[in-house]
Specification:
Layout (H helix, E strand, L loop, with lengths): L4 E4 L9 H10 L5 E6 L11 H10 L4 E6 L7 H6 L2 E7 L6 H11 L2 E6 L17 E5 L14 H14 L5 E5 L7 H7 L3 E4 L1 H4 L4 H10 L8
Bound molecules: 5-O-phosphono-D-xylulose (5SP).
């Protein structure tokens, strides 16, 4: 038995204080740092890319969990791996050749994840479940931090978990968007293994304590 993972999302950090924010993450019980890349095409926002990732890589001792909210992610797999990504997640909706892209991520040496938008049914992953290390369920529409959690994600997690059990598979289930102390227990009970938390961590009075509380919640345990 092991524990679920907590991944604070860099998107909600104070970039004028990047070194201090990364020192906080290093001191904390956070398992990963979630790194959201947005291209203004797949999602209606632009976030950050390689220069910031290089800076973060120098400052952050936690594995970088890179979430590519971009079209044609296959063009950038090796560059993100070279920049220090430990996990690379691409969107089902953004990949014409998802199987090929997942294989390319694995060949790069990174763990491979696939993400689903809130409206995309998990059944569409049936033929890729065996190939991925992680499935990221978006619990808000991707593109912005600080949005309201979409509650229908909870039964979706359960459905995915049941399907994985049926198939005797164990990729991690990561939940991203509107996650915090108010819903973490329910998410873990439904089957989540990784909690991405942006504003609920970096916007908290005591981010380090909030990460510790997110870690302390839940009985289900998991190690990557
Ligand atoms: O991918 C995204 C948004 O598209 C997330 O990773 C957000 O960064 C999560 O932020 P909060 O909803 O936790 O504030």
């Amino acid at each position: 038995m092991s524990q679920h993972l907590v991944a604070p999302s860099l998107l909600a950090a104070d970039f004028t204080q990047l070194a201090a924010e990364m020192a906080l993450v290093n001191r904390s019980q956070a398992d990963w740092l979630h790194f959201d890349v947005m291209d203004g095409r797949f999602v209606p926002n632009i976030s950050f890319g390689f220069p910031i990732m290089e800076a973060v890589q120098k400052l952050c001792q936690k594995p970088l969990d890179v979430h590519l909210m971009i079209l044609e992610p296959e063009k950038y797999i090796s560059a993100f791996r070279d920049a220090g990504a430990a996990v690379i997640t691409v969107h089902y909706e953004a990949c014409v050749h998802l199987h090929r892209t997942i294989q390319e991520i694995k060949a790069s040496g990174a763990k491979a994840g696939v993400a689903l938008n809130p409206h995309t049914p998990i059944e569409l992953l049936d033929d890729i479940l065996e190939d991925v290390d992680l499935i990221l369920l978006m619990s808000v529409n991707p593109g912005f931090g600080g949005q309201k959690f979409i509650y229908r994600t909870i039964p979706k997690i359960r459905r995915l978990k049941d399907r994985l059990i049926e198939r005797n598979l164990s990729p991690l289930i990561e939940i991203d968007g509107g996650v915090g102390l108010q819903n973490a227990e329910e998410l873990l009970k439904a089957g989540a293994n990784v909690l991405v938390a942006g504003n609920s961590v970096f916007g908290a009075k005591d981010p380090e304590a909030t990460i510790a509380q997110l870690k302390a919640i839940g009985e289900e345990v998991y190690k990557f």
